[in-house]
Amino acid sequence: MKRSTLLLLLFIISSLVTVQAQEIVNGGFELLNNKNLPRTWIIDNGESSFNIGIDSTVFFQGKHSLRIDGTKSKTTKKRPALAANTFGGASSQQLKSVELTAWIKTASTKDSTIALFIQDLKGDTIIRSFLKLSSPANNKWQKVTLRFKFGQPARWYGFYYGIEVNDSAVVWCDDVSLKVDQTPVKDLQNLYKEASATDIRWLNNNLHPIGSVKADDHIPELVPVGNILSEARIVGIGEPTHGTSEVTNLKLKLFKYLVEQKGFTTIALEENIPTCIEMNKIINQSEVNIRESLLSMPFYKCWKTTEMEALFEWLRAYNLERSNKVKLIGIDMEDIQIKGARKMLRDYGTEKNQKIATLIKLVDADLDSLLVLNSKRSNPNKIQLAANSVASDLKRMQQLLGDSEIQINDTDILFDLNTAVRVCQQWLESRFFDGKRDLFMAENISYYLNSHPSEKIMVWAHNFHIANSSQGVEKVMGAYLKENYKEGYCPLAISTGAGTYMATPDYSQKLWKTYVLELPYRGTYAYVLNKAKVDNYFLPLTKNKTNGTGGKWTLEPMKHLDLGYIYSANEDNYKYYGTLSSTFDGIFFFKNTTAAHTLINK
To answer: According to the model, what pLDDT value does residue 470 have?
Structure first.
């Protein structure tokens, strides 16, 4: 089979698989997902030419093998069957050698139809080791090994590996093992074992029950939360999905507590900055309809829910009764084609300053040219030159706003205009240079705090973003904040053990639906957290709590519940991104939650 064809198959099917920092081979196919297929493995049935599944009656050892059956379909095999896994996609370590071994049994009598393979992630190289059949070995388990040394000039940092079947054969595969740089790749044992009685006893002894997620109920039960964030100027409150009702309600309860009891003044939402600037104006006005504003403004559509409407209504009610008002800010630069940021500059320039108005017209024109070139997939050098022109325009705008001749005396307006320029620069960097979204979000929080030295912030974002974690070599927002603010940053996760959540089936985002969460399994934190004696609780994860006997499981690598706003039936709901107690200072857990209530479909 041609190299490019195999690459294409793996690219298409692996787009549904998140590359994880913790390697899992699952070579005995004992770990199964909710579709009864091997966890972490990519399965492709060759355009329905093969039936691929778990066999619990034929296996080399253990309880299962992977069965690939090409005899049921009478059609010509245009594509092979593939079962593949990945190694090293989140690493920066250059690899030297690999040894892939599997036990294979087949009912076929043909050579060169069954192969182990490795393929680099870019598809430049594919190495195969074919099963060699002989009459005595037919229908018996045979050991197949593929060995390869990664030579120069190619550099390998990760690869696909697995089995490929090209003909109408019945094939069983079992006990796949992998050595990289002569070191065996071992699965974590917590994927295969139950939590101990000591672990569960520690959990029950250290948790604090949460009776209600209603904003006005049982505020004293949040005192344990307040105890661990006494030094914090920034509290990150995460979420496992962007569509869970109880999570949003709990966040409102937490923000109310932080404002009224801990002196917090600002809520920072994982949302584009210009939109939040406009909504901050609305929550300080009594006559504007919150729901209509939420629906008409360019908020991320996952926020257009009755639960978020309640948040904005509470913010307005609080502000209209007080002179010291809480603020809503955005932290994200994901402003589509920077329309919101450019509009802010354009509106101010048109009304107040001709120099700004003239320069934003140049930004608009140069950006339009860049977008046209990019949409046509023009010469990369032309695209880069066009991007450089926009970057130069924005640099001039930044300098203009710092010019004393401009004379913008209102510090809030000047801050907003400078922030709009930063959003434009960050958006451009993330699309046409090497900008990192999580770094930009952390920088935006710091920029706000440096300009508002008396403010304290609650950051509202996904668990993954607020975590003190590095995904491979790339830090996430929480890791930057922890590095810069030390004990001044307190990340708190929220997770759940079962229920439903809201997501959209495709990128058009026209329809939002309710989906069922995958139940936690061994090797996930939720699997252990779900064994607590109470349904809803807060668990502190400070070092003095987790160093003793019973809490050590929080220091072991396990998977976190982690879902985006686009639903994928093939996605594992759980991901690796750091140990629980090193990534978070505490976690809220619900045994069952329900989907948020979208306003879009009404």
So the answer is: 78
Collapsing DSSP to helix, strand or coil, 499 comes out as strand
Confirm if 119 and 7 have CB atoms less than 8 A apart.
Answer: yes
Nearest Cα to 274, choosing from 342, 352, 360, 337? 342
| Domain range annotation of the chain | 3-187, 200-210+243-335+450-590
DSSP string for 463-490: HHHHSS-EETTEE-HHHHHHHHHGGGEE
CA gap 556, 487 in Å, rounded = 23
Neighbours of 413 (CB within 10 A): 13
Q: Which one, of 450, 444, 488, 447, lies nearest residue 231 by Cα?
A: 488
CA-to-CA dists, residue 561 to 242, 341, 514, 520, 576, angstroms: 12, 34, 17, 8, 9
Tokens at 339, concatenated:
């329309």
DSSP β-ladder status, 536-540 and 586-590: antiparallel
Instruction: Report the pLDDT value the prediction gives residue 140, as an integer from 0 to 100.
Output: 86
CATH code reported for the domain at 3-187: 2.60.120.260
The C-alpha atoms of residue 443 and residue 430 are separated, in whole angstroms, by 14
pLDDT < 50: residue spans in the chain: 1-5, 7-8, 11-19, 136
Q: Which residues lie closer than 8 Å to 547 by C-beta, 6 or more apart? A: none
pLDDT of 474 reads 77
pLDDT of residue 134: 58
At CA 128, angle to CA 125 and CA 133, rounded to 5? Answer: 170
| pTM assigned to the model | 0.90
Contact criterion met (CB below 8 Å) for 561 and 517: yes
Position 167 scores a pLDDT of: 80
Measured CA distances, 45 to 262, 313, 573 (Å) = 56, 51, 23
Q: What is the pLDDT of residues 199-227, one digit of tens each?
A: 999 999 999 999 988 877 667 899 999 99
Structure tokens at 547: 């160093």
**DSSP class of 301:** G
- Find where tokens 């090409």 sit: 70
Distance (Å, whole) CA 497 – CA 146: 41
Could you give the CA distance from residue 423 to residue 318 in angstroms, rounded to a whole number?
29
pLDDT of residue 79: 85
**Which are the contacts of 286, defined by CB distance < 8 A and separation ≥ 6?**
316, 320
Architecture of domain 200-210+243-335+450-590 in this structure? 3-Layer(aba) Sandwich (3.40)
Residues 6+ apart with CB under 8 A from 392: none
Q: Given CA atoms 72, 75, 80, 84 in this order, what sign does their dihedral have?
A: negative
Residue 349: both structure tokens together: 């320039």
238 phi and psi angles, rounded to 5 deg: -90, -175
Nearest to 28, CA basis, from 189, 176, 180, 178? 176
Q: How far apart are CA 436 and CA 461, in angstroms?
A: 16
